[in-house]
Structure formats: structure tokens, C-alpha cells
Write a structure and sequence with these properties.
Aspartate Aminotransferase, domain 1, Ethylene_sulfur-biosynth (chains A, B), PyrdxlP-dep_Trfase_small (chains A, B), homodimer, Aspartate Aminotransferase, domain 2, PyrdxlP-dep_Trfase_major (chains A, B), 4-stranded antiparallel beta sheet, Laminin
């Protein structure tokens, strides 16, 4: 009799104990697991995570505002040469895209840093035209940008003015307007040394043919008596397309220079010293890879030039989107949290790609690459090999005058030399696109070189 | 003996039961309470909710990227005339700001719809320059914009092209470039009927004095033999500053018109019929109140004009920030979710403000307001009183030639008539700013009218 009670009692106690343990587990789950209740942001967070969770086989991604085919769930948007509902199917004979400078090579970095780079925006966030200080420029973001430059040591920002624009695109033309004096009887001559960035020619030609006249290669204007009263030289350094650290060609009281430093980051070049020119242009696109955010800035010495650029931005677009400024703020904050990791990731990626390219083309007599000398990098405190954003490919054969056509025939799209003011025996190949794009480019190049008559063998 | 076992047994059972109940409660809390675990978005969500929870007494707000004074928590950014760490202190003799058209009157709507309007963005979201279809224009957003126009019935968008820009500011000048023919020997004459929107004069004058020549009031160019070969007329309807539904003044084969319909929403005007002009410009700023997002669009009939505007956007800023496009997408989606609520809220707010203004100024002999006739509104299916965005105030006294100075003396900032191409006996007062700004404006106006010699009494 007592024995039965004993058993029952033991069983009961066992249940009780396990039940209490379960309770404790729940308590831990709720309070230690950081699962405090979220209110207004929860629905959006779940929605965003659901879309981010759509699997695209690592060859694409689904976006919150991405294409919706049927139903209301966005579909996978696949990389070039991949297709299918989950981007798992490779398109065998597709064309390798090495055309535009879409900086997708940094996408994996952000996919590895989800929590620090996520952004939550309230519906009522920053509705006003201006910030609280009546400007179109976020002071907190400006602080962060100065901090990034200080850490990398690629530009002097102390006692400098900073203006924001919709990518370096809008900043560059704003700078040209600001440097071209008002009421000029004759247009300012705009030049850039060959090979130059395509926009340096297209923008002045399009916007104001009375204010600007594009005068081509800067070298042809050295020590010329018929040089225009006022000249503006665009200096892209490292240069787009060839990655060289460029210096201004023209000098003197009538020459103003705009230094485009979009690529002056450890990703692409050694940093010999902090840049300290009168007007320097940078862009988020080539720093974090967010080209779509359209955010760029200029670091300026002269207050009058700064004020003119501010006025230009106001008349052109009433400043820069606050959404773009907030996103940039969050991304730079996240990048700084990880110390130098973003630079290490970007440099390693670009270095590896460059080495693979050199290896392949070293076997070729038909194609050659630009030579860039190693230099001491103050960021890494060592002499560094180059890791340029673009390959500046030359077709060496007499008959290959149209180098782009040669590549086209091999199923590769590049950008022909004439777009950079030089001969079409040159082609720019973008090395900063997605890993898929780069891999397919290398596949095509390997094939092309392998089929080359008299190609060297390893 | 047995009795003791019984008691113990009962106690144990009691504990067991309550413990099990507790378990069930936890299970319910976790799985019914919608508290599924969030992963990468959680930290950002908590951060955003923490900042949003900072109390600013309803006279200000703290922003995620807002000013940080010390520590790392953003501080309250107060409305005009309020100060203190929580914006609770009123500044007695402060100046009423009725100057700019900052559409903060819609902020309360978004504060009431937090969950539907919140946005969560992944760090890797839309990094590319272009969308998957190689354009700079989000197709899903374009669909949504067409849907909004269809629901409101304020514009025909079927078989029309749509281009995006950084606010109507960038869209308007892009339109002017697109409509000014290339290789014109003489500049295109740009006109607008007085009173006109300030930018219609400033933009053509600034950007390209060879392409455009601002020729002032459109009326002075009717049936004139010396009219330029090509003319562009800006038609802002409802008009900024006076809220009238404007029609084009100039007609004929050499005249192109740009219809600025920024204010053609039920908020501000009856909608007699869907607008169906060749080139119509709209902006998010005056639809949802998000001026800071810098998002505008044009609805275009002619494909050549559309292509020219696309090219302009590319050369000017490589399209519109994808962050701005994503935010617009989320906001319009949220607005549509609530049916016509945003329009009802906006209309009621503007109507109430206009009525309060009329009531005050009806007692005045010194000041008069624009008269706007009621019209049938196809959106509300009834004849509607006006609810304009701006008061177009006139100082009636001979000695009050500088009406802005009169208001300044009464501690009110408006925008003087000359900014709109007319006499300074007119002043524009913005009615779309925050409720605080409007209340203080009314306070100052009441005082001004009350002190008026020979003011009428109720």
C-alpha cells in the first residue's frame, strides 16, 4: 500500500521537476534570448527577412521591391549567365559581361555582416526638405565621412568643406559649374589626359556649351600660347580606365583641377599619402559597393567654391535624398564597426582577381595589360602590388584595330578605347562586378588565349 | 500515515498542474504572440524603436541619424518655437515660419500608421546601378504610381511613359532640356504666367543660358510677332503660390508646355478630371509629405521626349537613388493599404487650416486672400471648397507696398511677391508646415488683425 503511494509520489515529483525545468527553459528563451517584444517595426522586419530568405542558389537574390511575377512574393533576380526560378541553371554560351563598373564584388561582404548593416526606417523619418540646421547635409554623416578618411589616410579633411551629391556623377558636374567663372565671354576649356573617364567629356558637352567647351587631351594643351583664358582639368586618380595614379598635366593661375578620387581606396591602389588637393571627389559606390544609393561627396578647400556647389545642388535637386544619406550613414557605421575588414576583403578580392588575370594573359602574345608599379601603402604599411578596378587591355596585333570586336567574337563585352578618348585597340574590362561575372570572364579569356596561334605554354 | 501521503500527493499535484499551466502560458506567449525569432533585422529594429521612443513632447522628434550631442543617443529636434531637451519649452516671442513649403502637415498621418509604413533594408539591398531590367527605374514602383493615379483619377497614365527624378526639381529641368531642341541657333524662350513658381525662372537661367532664355510672364507673349521660334511654358496647376487651376497661355506648333501638377491631389484642390497633358510632373513631397526623399516623376506622351529625359537623368545623376525609390515604394504601398485615408486626412487638415485663416482675415481691411471658386471633385463626387497649400496674401493699403516687411514686423516670415514675378504687395504664406508652425502663424495673424485700425469686429 505504502509502496504504491511511494511510486506515485516519485512519479509526480518527476513530472513536477521536469515541468519546472521546462518553465525555466521558457524563461531563459524569452528573457535571455533577447526576445523582447518589438512593436511597429516587427511586421516590416518579418517581411524583409522572408524576402531575404528566398533561396537563389547563390547566383541571384530577391529584393523587397523586386519584380513580382505572380502572387505577391518577389522572384529571384539572377546574375548574368544564370537563370531558372532559383537561378540554379547556368546558361552555357552566354556572354561574359565586363562592361560597366558595377561594384557587386562587395556584395558578399554585406551578406556576411547582416546585423550591423541592416536599417530600419520609420514612416515619419526625416520628411522635411532640410535637416534641423536648415542644410541639406546630415552633420552626423559628414562626421562619419571625415572619420573614414582619417582612418584610411587617403584624404585631408581637416578645415575642409564637404558637399554631398547624387553619386560622383552629380558632384563632378557641380564642381565644373562652380569652377567655371560667371559671365565668362568665352567658355571654359575642359580637359582630361588620355585615357580619361567618359563622363569628363559627356557632361560638359551636354550641360552647357556656353559655359564649357571640352578640349580633349590635357597633354595637347601644355605650354600652348592659344590656351583658353580659363581651363578646368579633370584628374581621375587612380585613373579610370587604367588604374594609374594620375597627376595634373596643366598648371598655372588660370587652371583649376577637379581630382576624381573615386578609386583612391585600399581596395584598388596603394595609398602613398593623404590626398590634399583643392577639390576632391569621392563616391560611396566604389567604397562600399552601393552604386544604387547614388551618394558622392566633394572635399573642398575654398569656401566660395563650396557655396557655389551647394547652390548648384539646390537648383538641381534640392540637395541629396535623405534616404540615401541615412543608408550611407548606416553602411559606413557598420563598416567602421568591423575595423579594417571591409578594406581587407575588398583588397584581397581585387588582388586575387588581378593575379588570375595576369596569369592568363601572361601566356598571350595577342593581348597585353597595363603595367602598374607597386608602391608603399601607408594604410598597410608595406609596399603593395596593384589591384586595379579595371583591366586596360590592348590588342597587340596590327589587324586587331577593333579590340572590342575581337573580344565580342569571343563572347566578352568590354568598353572600347574610343569611349576613353583613345584608340580602339584598347578595351576596358571591369573587374569589380560579381564573382560570377568575373569567373565567366576568365573562362572566356582562358579559352581565347588557349586558341591563340603561338600562344606561350606554361 | 496515509493521510500525510494524501496531503503531500495533493500538494504535488497542485504544483504540477500550476506548473503545466505556466508552461502552456509560455507556449502561447511565444507562438501565439507572434514572437517568432527575428535574426539579422532584430538589432536594427530595436535600435530604431529605441530612438523613436525618445519623447519630444509632441513638438519634435529624434531621428536615427539625428544630431548626437554627447553619448551616442540622438537628441530631440524641436519644431520652430519649441526648445529644451524634450522640446517642451515654448519660445514666447519667436517668429512664425510660413516661408518654405515643407509638407510636415502629413507627419501625424505617418505617426498613426507606423507598422504599415516601416521599412527594413538589408545591407546588400540593390547595390547595383541599375535594376534587373538594366534601367534606373523600379518597375514595381512604376506600377504603384500608375495605380495611385488611377485611384485618385488625377492623371491619365495608360500608354504613357514615366521617368523618375530627384524630386520635381530635377524632373522639371530635365523636361526643359528634353523639350529644347538640340542645335538651336537661338535659345528657347521659357515663360510662365505671373505669379509663377520661383524655380521656373531660376533653373533655366542657371543651367544653360545658351539653350534657354527666361522671358518672364507668358501673358506678355500672346499673339506677339517677335515671339521666339521655340517657346516652353511652365504651367503649375494648382498654381504655386495662389492655388488656382492654371491653363496654358501660349499655344501653337512652336510652343511646348510642362505641366507641374505637384499640387494636383485631393489634399489641395478639387479634381475636376484626370489631367492628360503631353508632359506632367508630380512629386512625392506634396503627395505623402516626404520632401526629404527627393522623389518626383513625369508622365510623358512622346517617346523621344521620354528618352531624352532618361538620358538627362543618366548624365546628371545616373538615375534616382534606389533608397529613395524603395522608400517611396513602401510609403505608397502603405498609403494604398489604408484606402483613401491619406487623402481624407490631408484634405481635412488643409480645409480646416484654410477655414481658420479665412475667419481671421475676414475681419481685416488691411489684408486680403486669393479667391478660389469651389468646383466639382470627381474624387469625392461632390462640389468641394478649396484647401490650398499656400495663402496668397495681399496688403491692400497704399503704404504697405512691402507686404513682407509688414508681416516681418508682426513676427511672421513669408515669401515676397517678387519671388513669384509680381509686386511685393503680395506675400506667400505656407499652410502645409507642421501644426505648431500653423498655430503660431494664426496666433500672430490674429494679433495683427486685432490691432488693425478699423478692423471689423465679429
Amino acid at each position: 500500500m505504502i509502496g504504491i503511494f511511494k511510486k506515485e509520489k516519485e512519479m509526480n515529483s518527476a513530472c513536477l521537476v521536469s515541468s519546472i525545468i521546462l518553465n525555466l527553459l521558457f524563461i531563459i528563451n524569452i528573457y535571455m534570448g533577447g526576445q523582447r517584444k518589438l512593436s511597429w517595426s516587427r511586421r516590416a522586419a518579418e517581411e524583409a527577412e522572408a524576402v531575404a530568405a528566398i533561396s537563389c542558389s547563390g547566383h541571384g537574390r530577391a529584393y523587397l521591391d523586386g519584380l513580382v511575377v505572380d502572387g505577391n512574393k518577389p522572384v529571384c533576380e539572377c546574375n548574368t549567365c544564370f537563370t531558372g526560378p532559383d537561378c540554379s541553371q547556368f546558361i552555357p554560351d552566354c556572354t561574359a559581361n565586363a562592361e560597366s563598373g558595377d561594384p557587386l564584388f562587395l556584395e558578399p561582404f554585406w551578406m556576411q555582416h547582416l546585423a550591423s548593416s541592416a536599417l530600419v526606417v520609420a514612416g515619419w523619418h526625416q520628411m522635411s526638405y532640410s535637416y534641423n540646421d536648415k542644410t541639406f547635409i546630415s552633420k552626423e554623416l559628414e562626421k562619419l565621412i571625415r572619420k573614414v578618411h582619417a582612418i584610411v589616410g587617403n584624404a585631408v579633411t581637416e578645415d575642409r568643406f564637404i558637399v554631398f551629391g547624387a553619386g560622383s556623377t552629380q558632384v563632378l558636374i557641380a564642381a565644373a559649374y562652380a569652377l567655371s567663372l560667371e559671365n565668362t565671354s568665352s567658355p571654359v576649356g575642359v580637359v582630361a589626359s588620355v585615357p580619361y573617364y567618359t563622363l569628363d567629356k559627356l557632361q560638359p558637352e551636354y550641360f552647357n556649351s556656353e559655359k564649357f567647351k571640352f578640349e580633349g587631351d590635357a597633354y595637347t594643351w601644355r605650354n600652348r600660347s592659344d590656351a583658353r583664358a580659363n581651363m578646368i582639368e579633370f584628374v581621375t586618380s587612380p585613373n579610370n580606365p587604367d588604374g594609374q595614379l594620375k597627376k595634373a598635366v596643366l598648371h598655372g593661375p588660370n587652371v583649376k583641377t577637379i581630382h576624381d578620387h573615386a578609386y583612391y581606396w585600399p581596395h584598388f591602389t596603394p595609398i602613398p599619402a593623404p590626398a590634399d588637393e583643392d577639390l576632391m571627389v569621392f563616391t560611396l559606390s566604389k567604397l562600399t559597393g552601393h552604386a544604387g544609393s547614388r551618394f558622392g561627396w566633394a572635399v573642398i578647400k575654398d569656401e566660395t567654391v563650396f557655396n557655389r556647389m551647394i547652390a548648384h545642388m539646390e537648383l538641381n535637386s534640392m540637395g541629396v535624398s535623405k534616404d540615401s544619406q541615412l543608408r550611407t550613414f548606416k553602411l559606413l557605421k557598420a563598416a567602421l564597426e568591423e575595423g579594417t575588414e571591409i578594406f581587407d576583403f575588398a583588397y584581397q578580392t581585387m588582388k586575387t582577381r588581378w593575379e588570375r588575370l595576369i596569369e592568363t594573359l601572361s601566356l598571350s602574345n595577342r593581348f597585353s595589360l597595363q603595367k602598374i608599379d607597386p608602391q608603399y601603402c601607408t594604410f598597410y604599411n608595406k609596399v603593395r602590388e596593384p589591384s586595379p578596378a579595371y583591366a586596360w587591355l590592348k590588342c597587340e596585333r596590327e589587324e586587331d584595330k577593333d579590340c572590342n570586336a575581337v573580344l565580342m567574337a569571343a563572347n566578352i563585352i568590354g568598353r572600347q578605347g574610343s569611349r576613353f578618348g583613345t584608340e580602339d585597340c584598347y578595351v576596358r574590362l571591369s573587374l569589380i562586378r560579381s564573382q560570377d561575372d568575373f569567373n565567366i570572364l576568365m573562362e572566356r579569356l582562358n579559352k581565347l588565349v588557349a586558341e591563340e596561334d603561338g600562344a606561350k605554354t606554361m
